[in-house]
Structure to design on (338 residues):
């Protein structure tokens, strides 16, 4: 299989060269997150377990091949609102194995390996494969990542958008829509570069620091914050921001006292529709930060350097590049003259 090959330089993130097949020659056989899959023909019926896989398929012009979706954090991208409205959402969070199978999919496209993997909360890949249903997990959740450590997994190396582009390329080949895949990658790479250029044009402090707060099981307890090597770590590295959280875990829990001692210049907080935990609510996050005796004394809170970002952008997804844009634009409107 021919895949996109990128040369990333300090001055450009646009694809330097790549080779894409003129048309898919079936069967398509590839190794996906350590499992070999073989696709005999372009899937006609797809169920997605994860917003990332859903929006990539929509972006490839394949909404008509999706007949069920699940696991959503934020509203769908506006340009796909009408198409998404017509597709059954079998669950906002984790679907059951039966609910997915009942849609009779040819392929199940998955965002997180912990949903469909060795100990999948929905099912294992083998359970689907025994029924003749192929599974495809977005490479961003397994490339440079060990999901056997429990929770959200641990990065073994830094996330990069190469894994996003790899997923787009492989799905484009599976569905025989290579031109759409090429166009999507080119657009995303250009957006990535523009965000980096914007930040580099700003007069930012040399040791600018930040922390990303995704959620907490309850307000006041240690929050889930972004580790060094995940998608938020990528954003901070590209915009030359120091992450005050030193863990390689994807989303470690760290006490507010420790975060306050590190005193990040900027705090990025996740906005989501999900309501699994009290701190999923963005308004609850704001209220806590402004009222808690520890957090209200943090520089980011006192100086209103708090950035709201879609939760989906904080995961390793196509939306991560949108998050990069959000952060760069927010920095362009901040003052660091305390």
């Amino acid at each position: 299989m021919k895949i996109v090959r990128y040369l990333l330089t300090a001055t450009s993130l646009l694809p330097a060269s790549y080779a894409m097949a003129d048309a898919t020659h079936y069967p398509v056989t590839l190794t996906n997150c350590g499992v070999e899959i073989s696709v005999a023909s372009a899937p006609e019926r797809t169920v997605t377990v994860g917003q990332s896989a859903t929006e990539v398929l929509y972006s490839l012009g394949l909404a008509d091949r999706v007949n069920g979706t699940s696991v959503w954090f934020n509203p769908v991208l506006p340009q796909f609102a009408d198409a998404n409205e017509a597709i059954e959402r079998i669950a906002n969070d984790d679907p059951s194995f039966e609910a997915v199978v009942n849609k009779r999919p040819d392929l199940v496209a998955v965002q997180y390996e912990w949903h469909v993997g060795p100990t999948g909360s929905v099912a294992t890949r083998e359970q689907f494969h025994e029924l003749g249903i192929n599974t495809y997990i977005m490479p961003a959740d397994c490339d440079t990542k060990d999901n056997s450590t429990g929770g959200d997994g641990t990065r073994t190396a830094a996330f990069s958008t190469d894994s996003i582009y790899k997923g787009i390329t492989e799905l484009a080949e599976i569905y025989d829509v290579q031109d759409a895949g090429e166009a999507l990658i080119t657009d995303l790479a250009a957006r990535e570069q523009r965000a980096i250029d914007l930040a580099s044009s700003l007069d930012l402090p040399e040791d600018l620091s930040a922390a990303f707060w995704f959620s907490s099981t309850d307000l006041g307890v240690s929050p889930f914050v972004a580790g060094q090597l995940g998608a938020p770590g990528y954003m901070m590295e590209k915009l030359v921001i120091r992450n005050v959280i030193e863990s390689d875990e994807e989303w470690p829990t760290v006490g507010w006292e420790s975060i306050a001692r590190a005193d990040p210049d900027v705090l990025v907080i996740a906005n989501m529709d999900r309501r699994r935990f009290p701190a999923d609510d963005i308004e609850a996050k704001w209220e806590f930060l402004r009222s808690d005796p520890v957090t209200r004394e943090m520089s980011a809170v006192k100086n209103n350097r708090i950035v709201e970002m879609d939760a989906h952008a904080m995961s390793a997804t196509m939306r991560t590049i949108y998050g990069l844009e959000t952060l760069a634009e927010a920095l362009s409107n901040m003052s660091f003259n305390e």
Q: What stands out?
A: Residues 178-200 form the longest helix (23 residues). Residues 127 and 133 are 9 Å apart (CA to CA). The chain has a mean pLDDT of 93. The first strand starts at residue 28 and ends at 32.
